[in-house]
Design brief:
Helix content is 35%, strand content 15%. By secondary structure, the chain is of the alpha/beta class.
């Protein structure tokens, strides 16, 4: 009699490998694969056709026909997809692989909760829960780690109540060349490969041949190792431990291969990426590029195992001989009908120690196999922008149309078709849309994005003051047919966005300020950057004496776009060099004397706006995204401004410059997307080592 197996998972990669293993195990098994993978900027989840093709190829079945059904849905919305389904066995795959642990744990809990609630209606006789062998520690208290153990307890209790046989399986992270295609980045080796690729992309965007002359130094690798477990091998072990056929209720852990020294993995992965990676003893003297790699390797080190410790032997199976198949250990066995014992918390420490090794029965991946697998991952990273973090997916075209405002044409650009209020992007004065192309490309798959060509600097433009900019913004909203919008103000756009919120508070759902300038006439508190101070002096002089413009054209060259940032900050090095794609864009306001005079007068007018005085009455939630090495707009002044907004969050990107929305579009787009969805929780939902959140105990930016 045909068996029907339902596999629901937040990882389409691992759930798909399991589905393939299930299909190849029996010719009459039907599989329903419910993918709850979430699409995010820089990590686009595959659609139903992509998943079905992947499973068929993995199972070596050119056409599985009616034996495979693929359904896609968000973790919070799978209850409706489960209605009406039946299955003999149910798998819930929640491996805890999201780069942001809190966000991932919530998605995993939502999926598992829906599947467990539907268990009686599904009519299953067996349930298999697949979770992480050790969730990444999220702080001294470890609520995420405890949360995954709580999911296991809930699974056991639900199965006992429903009279369903159960297995709880734990798996280490896996390595799979298809991960970049799936928009996934499991912990361990994949995070290391992503870090190298993202740093290389960001550096070569500025200086293409930089790595031909400079190595990258990596600290903290001594004494650590990574387990390199191919996804197909993990799926095989999981299937053997949980497949139908008389296994008793209980726990099992997939054995990890013996760890490979982290220094060796770095050397091989670096060579595949064309980077000379050199391990160093400490972080003293790290360059800016080294620091960026170091920050992005933080969770790689947290997931590493200590070398030199004896591997845990797998626990023996039950005495009746029906225990787990050889190679599957059970380090935390529980009697049938008993919930799992909670894992012990790690002792409090600023940096939690790496987890100890899981049961080790397999030989480590050979050096040749590592070279081959790393190379395939690198090839997919190079051609698919979904996991690249900085490059790719810039082909999302902005649809251009023209509307008339104040008797003059206004160019409006749109992309995306998302539901809800659109994201309206306020560009900096004097700038074209080229700064925002990469950011809009990352936002468009998830939101409707609208922007326009800021007016006032072209030769045929009349004087265009702050009030005129507000009128243009209102006209853009009308043209977009939007009663409400999320306003994204880059650089000088932040002041215009704040003023518009005061004009039409009901029309503003939220405010996002990207590398915002809050410079104010008459404030001499030392918080301005040198560039701001120099620009202010030139603009005031040109406002009074426009004839001096020709001589002043060469005084300001914002080409570095990064500099040393705040006083006392470390040198940005190669990351302070302007992206080659922005060379012409940054010089738009300085291309001739007439344009420069118009630009100077716009800025002088804008600096009269006191955004701090308006901030206290802004009721919308506000997100500040600033950069450590912003040498143009002062991060220190932005932090001061953030304190004036009642509902502000302030995120500072390490080793980033003024053009971070262009240089790190996936990260900035992810911050925006999560903020729009849950403004009061964004600091928990997007928490990476390269982001510093400034929030006091009452939730206000500090």
């Amino acid at each position: 009699m045909p068996q029907r197996v339902l596999i629901a998972g937040t990882s389409a990669l691992l759930a798909g490998r399991l589905a393939a293993r299930c299909l190849s195990a029996s010719g009459d098994t039907e599989v329903v694969l419910l993918s709850a993978a979430v699409s995010r900027p820089g990590a686009i989840a595959p659609d139903r056709k992509e998943i079905a093709s992947f499973v068929a190829q993995s199972a070596r079945l050119p056409d599985p026909g009616g034996r495979l059904t693929v359904v896609c849905g968000a973790p919070e919305a799978v209850a409706g997809e489960l209605a009406g389904l039946t299955a003999d066995q149910v798998w819930c795959v929640v491996p805890g692989w999201d780069r942001a642990p809190v966000r991932g744990a919530r998605g995993d809990a939502a999926l598992a909760g829906s599947v467990l609630a539907a268990l009686p209606a599904l009519g299953a006789v067996g349930y298999v829960h697949v979770g992480p062998d050790g969730a990444a520690d999220d702080g001294p208290a470890g609520p995420v780690r405890r949360g995954y153990r709580e999911l296991e307890r809930r699974a056991v209790e639900a199965c006992l109540d429903a009279g369903v046989a159960w297995r709880v399986l734990r798996t280490p992270p896996v390595l799979d060349d298809q991960a970049p295609v799936f928009g996934e980045c499991p912990p361990g080796a994949h995070r290391l490969l992503w870090a190298l690729h993202a740093v290389r992309t960001e550096v070569e965007d500025r200086v293409p041949d930089w790595f031909e002359r400079h190595p990258l130094r990596a600290a903290g690798a001594a004494g650590l190792g990574l387990t390199l477990l191919p996804a197909e091998q993990a799926a095989e072990e999981l299937w053997r431990a949980g497949a139908p056929g008389g296994l008793p209720d209980g726990f099992a852990t997939v054995p990890a291969p013996a760890p490979v020294p982290l220094a060796d993995v770095l050397a091989r992965a670096g060579a595949v990426h064309g980077i000379d990676v050199r391990p160093v003893a400490d972080r003293a003297g790290l360059s800016a590029a080294d620091r960026l790699l170091d920050l992005r390797l933080a969770d790689v080190r947290a997931q590493a195992v200590r070398l030199g410790r004896p591997a845990e032997a797998p626990a023996p199976g039950p005495s009746d001989g029906t225990g787990p198949a050889a190679g599957v250990g059970a380090p935390e066995p529980a009697a049938a009908g008993q919930p799992p014992a909670p894992s012990a918390d790690l002792p409090e420490a600023a940096d939690p120690p790496p987890r100890s090794a899981t049961p080790t029965l397999a030989a480590p991946l050979s050096a040749a196999a590592q070279w081959e697998l790393f190379g395939r991952v690198r090839a997919y990273q190079a051609v698919d922008g979904r996991a690249a973090g900085t490059a790719g997916r810039e082909d999302v075209g902005l649809r251009r149309r023209t509307v008339e405002v104040a008797g003059r044409p206004l160019a409006v650009y749109e992309a995306g078709d998302g539901d809800g209020p659109p994201l309206v992007v306020l560009n900096a004065l004097g700038q074209g849309p080229g700064f925002l192309t990469r950011l809009c490309a990352r936002l468009a798959p998830h939101h409707r994005v609208v922007t326009w060509q800021v007016r006032g600097t072209e030769r045929d433009d009349p004087p265009w003051r702050a009030g005129d900019q507000l009128d243009d913004l209102e006209a853009v909203l009308d043209a977009a047919g939007a009663d409400r919008a999320h306003l994204l103000g880059w650089c000088t756009g932040a002041k215009i966005a704040t003023a518009f919120q005061r004009r039409r508070p009901d029309a503003v759902a939220s405010l996002v300020f990207l590398n915002a300038t809050f410079r104010q006439n008459g404030r001499w508190d030392g918080l301005d950057t040198k560039y701001e101070a120099d620009l202010a002096a030139v603009c005031r002089a040109l406002d009074r004496s426009p004839a001096k413009a020709t001589r002043m054209l060469g005084l300001l060259a914002p080409g570095a776009g990064g500099g040393k940032g705040s006083p006392g900050a470390r040198d940005a090095g190669v990351l302070g060099v302007l992206s080659r794609a922005l060379t012409d864009e940054v010089r738009r306001p300085f291309r001739d004397a007439e344009v420069l005079v118009r630009y100077a007068r716009q800025l002088v007018d804008l600096w009269r706006l006191d955004s701090a005085a308006q901030a206290a009455r802004v009721t919308a939630p506000v997100l500040f995204v600033c950069s450590e090495f912003d040498g143009i707009s002062s991060p220190a002044r932005a932090r001061e401004a953030a304190r004036c907004f009642p509902r502000a969050r302030y995120a500072e990107l390490a080793v980033a410059g003024h053009y971070a929305p262009h240089d790190r579009p996936a990260l900035v787009a992810e911050l925006i997307t999560e903020f729009v969805r849950a403004p009061d929780e964004v600091a928990d939902l997007v928490r990476y080592a390269e982001i510093t959140w400034h929030i006091d105990t009452e939730g206000t930016a500090r």
